[in-house]
Amino acid sequence: MDNMDNMDTTIIENEEEVSTWVINNKKTCMKAFFNPFYDIFDRFLVEVVKCKKIEEYIDLETMIIKSTSVSKPGKIPIRLNKPETKVPAVYYFLSLFLIKFAGVHVDSVVEFLLRREYTAAVSLKRIETRYSDLQKKFEDLEKKVENSADSALINGLVIIQDLENKIRNLEADVIAKERIILEKNETNNSLWEKIKEKKEEQPTSQATDMEIDKKTQKKKKRPTNKKRKRAQAIAKTGMITDLVIDKGDKDKDYLEKHFADKSHDITFYDIPAYWSDEEILGLLNANVGVVEFINFKRCHKYKTVRTMLRFSKAYEKIYTEGGVNVSLTRNNDRTYFIRMFDSHLPYSKFKEKFRWQVLKRLEDDV
């Protein structure tokens, strides 16, 4: 019966396609019917031929075919033999077995077809019910869309009417303001004409206010060279300056012994802005490591210094362990503490590293 599952149940309206579908499915049914008969002789008929009595045949049929709802073992609804005709028992048993064997398989084919027909009818009924529900929902949706479209159209017309009224009011205001401006211009023109007439009446020998101002004005003093140099030395806020570093001849063995092998791109923060660039470079070389590149950025009261340098052995250890504090000692023996970070470290990492929160300690009353 596995071949029966391949039968197509598609509804076809074209007559030629219907005929083709019927032929193909009929072949499938006939193949499903005859498949059990291919090896029937070796499997069953050899044993049927050996039966001599009806009791032997009944036992064999019960073992092979088992019970059916159509007839009892050894019997069929129609009559194959008469008392007056003497048919050998082997022929009778063979005919009876083949008829009942075929009937069993026909019964299975018919049962499969009926079951499939009923299943298809139930599925079709469900589809029709689902389709009717969808159709009803679609109709309700159409009604809602029509109602919403009408309400939207009405609202749009109301809005347009309001806009037209506002435009008319604005036009009226513009016209009124234009009239006021014209009246003020006429008044101003008349005043200017009166002023010109009075000026023409005054004697030309009198000195004008502008000439008096020129005489009374004092000459501004130019800045001296010292002030000019001091102004040039102080960098403005946000200005970035570079300092040329004289690398000179540095002992390679000394660098490898006392300084790190690899250079780092480091930015130093919280350096006082009144320190000169040369002093900062000297303090970094004396305390932190060998500076290979440096630039300065003024940030109000402080300077931000970005460098490419090789740490000393001590600061290399501090940096690799996550330390950020750097101490610089000036000539007045005063020590200042600044902070250092990787120049490529984003601001979110700064914020996460130095975040803090206020805690209140609660003590139980004794």
Descriptive notes:
The protein has 366 residues and is an alpha+beta fold. Among the domains are: 2-137, no CATH class; 235-353, no CATH class. The protein has helices at residues 15-34, 40-49, 54-64, 89-201, 209-216, 225-233, 252-258, 277-287, 313-320, 347-353; strands at residues 240-242, 264-272, 289-299, 302-311, 325-329, 335-342. Strands 1-3-4-2-6-5 form a 6-stranded antiparallel sheet. The longest helix has 113 residues, at 89-201. It starts with 14 loop residues before the first helix and ends in a 13-residue tail after the last helix. 9% of the residues are buried. The model has no long low-confidence stretch (mean pLDDT 77).
Keywords:
366 residues; alpha+beta; 10 helices; six-stranded antiparallel beta sheet
Which structural class do you get from the secondary structure elements? alpha+beta
Q: Strands across the major sheet, in which order?
A: 1-3-4-2-6-5
Unreliable spans are none
Q: State the total count of DSSP E strands.
A: 6
Enumerate how many helices there are, as a single number: 10
The best one-word shape is elongated
In this structure, how is the largest beta sheet organized?
Answer: 6 strands, antiparallel
Radius of gyration: 56 Å
What is the overall pLDDT average?
A: 77
Secondary-structure element series: HHHHHHEHEHEEHEEH
Content of β-strand: 5-15%
**Distance between the first and last residues' Cα:** 90 Å
Helix content bin: 55-70%
